[in-house]
């Protein structure tokens, strides 16, 4: 049975690697657009803020479909729910102000970071997951920082661009690590 599970996880690895590269590219593009749009809650900024967690939902759906044979996907389903709630929450909070957006984003970063950390730990046998584990932990800390910064007078959305960029880099590192850990025939 162990060899069957190992073969299934090897089969899921190329799909996961592609998904991680796509997530890297999306995060970098999103962060650049957020920096261009600025720190005010314009219609464009509010749309970008909604799109990021909505993309996370779509990525988790793709991940769950490709990983179903390779192991448990409950964490991915939890991530779908949390990210969908965050997308709606950010859309609603966008009408109230930057501070409320940072609170919602921060709460999402904490919860989704914990989920990412747990999924990474569960996927350790696949290889290439240390970056996802570290990224999940950093997300928890960043989320707490966003919540705390929401109470400051000069709260800003630009920190979210740094958060997305760092997360994207961790996805790229994990994609490369998956490439190195995949057995070659």
Can you describe what's shown?
This protein has helices at residues 2-37, 43-67, 74-93, 98-122, 130-149, 158-181. Mean pLDDT is 86; it is low at 1-10. The protein is globular, with a radius of gyration of 17 Å. Helices cover 81% and strands 0% of the residues. α2 (43-67) runs antiparallel to α3 (74-93) and α5 (130-149) packs antiparallel against α6 (158-181). It is built from six helices and no strands. The longest helix has 36 residues, at 2-37. With 185 residues, it is an all-alpha fold.
Summarize the structure.
By secondary structure, the chain is mainly alpha-helical.
Summing up helix and strand content along with how strands pair, one would put the structural category as mainly alpha
Distance between the termini: 20 Å
Series of H and E elements: HHHHHH
| Total strand segments | 0
Number of helices: 6
What is the mean pLDDT? 86
Helical percent range?
over 70%
Main pleated-sheet profile: none
Q: Quick one: overall form?
A: globular
Low-confidence stretches: 1-10
Q: What proportion strand?
A: under 5%
What Rg is obtained from the alpha carbons, in whole angstroms?
Answer: 17 Å
């Amino acid at each position: 049975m162990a060899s069957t599970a190992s073969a299934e996880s090897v089969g899921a690895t190329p799909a996961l690697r592609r998904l991680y590269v796509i997530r890297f590219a999306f995060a970098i593009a999103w962060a650049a657009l957020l920096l261009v749009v600025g720190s005010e809650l314009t219609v464009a900024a509010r749309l970008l803020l909604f799109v990021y967690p909505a993309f996370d939902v779509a990525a988790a759906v793709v991940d769950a479909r490709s990983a179903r044979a390779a192991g448990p996907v409950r964490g991915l389903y939890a991530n779908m729910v949390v990210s969908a709630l965050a997308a709606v929450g950010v859309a609603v909070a966008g009408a109230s102000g930057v501070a409320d957006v940072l609170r919602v984003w921060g709460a999402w970063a904490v919860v989704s970071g914990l989920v990412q950390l747990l999924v990474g730990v569960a996927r350790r046998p696949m290889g290439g997951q240390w970056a996802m584990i570290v990224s999940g932990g950093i997300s928890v800390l960043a989320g707490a920082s966003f919540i705390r910064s929401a109470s400051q007078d000069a709260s800003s959305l630009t920190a979210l661009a740094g958060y997305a960029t760092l997360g994207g880099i961790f996805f790229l590192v994990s994609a490369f690590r998956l490439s190195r850990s995949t057995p070659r025939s």
